[in-house]
């Protein structure tokens, strides 16, 4: 299942468990989403093309 970072940041999606965050822009949005996910109890893996 795929969700946007804004869904995570504004709280419309509360994800838990193992979550992969794909960051193809290198901006702050992905890291902000990771922080919100970790605070909610998720285990997060970040994937980037770099």
From TrEMBL:
InterPro entries: FAD/NAD-bd_sf (IPR036188). This is Uncharacterized protein. It comes from Streptomyces flavidovirens.
